[in-house]
Amino acid sequence: MYNTRTPLSMQQPIWSDQDTTFQEVTPDSGIETPAMSVGKQIMRNHVRNLFNVLSLSPKERRIIKLRFGIGGGKQRSLSEIGEIYGLSKERVRQLESRALYKLKQNMNSHGLSAYADFLV
């Protein structure tokens, strides 16, 4: 009973004959893998370039950027965007939906289908 109450160090070796520590075998699910992080960064750059190519209206472009925090901003809710532009929450949702439809239609033709795993 006494040993079960003693806290263990994450730096402590698991086995006495090896150097493997608890920290090495315990995954941290809160940290992205380097490959996932780099992939997302490359995808962001492609999406920014796609904005310049697509025929999104200026309003649609601004709504998508605000909604998803593209360009360094924070993600905004539909009602926050509606307050900024004097639109109803439903109208913002409609504009967002139309812009996302245009983006999805152009994913394959602009080489973004490789990033389907990153999209939620």
UniProtKB/TrEMBL annotation:
Signal peptide: none
InterPro entries associated with the record: RNA_pol_sigma-70_dom, RNA_pol_sigma70, RNA_pol_sigma70_r3, RNA_pol_sigma70_r4, RNA_pol_sigma_r3/r4-like, Sigma-70_RNA_pol_init_factors, WH-like_DNA-bd_sf
PROSITE patterns hit by this protein: SIGMA70_2
Domain RNA polymerase sigma-70: start-end pairs: 77-103
Gene3D superfamilies, alphabetized: Winged helix-like DNA-binding domain superfamily/Winged helix DNA-binding domain (1.10.10.10)
Any one of the GO BP annotations: DNA-templated transcription initiation
Molecular-function GO terms, alphabetical: sigma factor activity
Pfam families tied to this protein: Sigma70_r3, Sigma70_r4
Family: Belongs to the sigma-70 factor family.
Protein name: RNA polymerase sigma-70 domain-containing protein
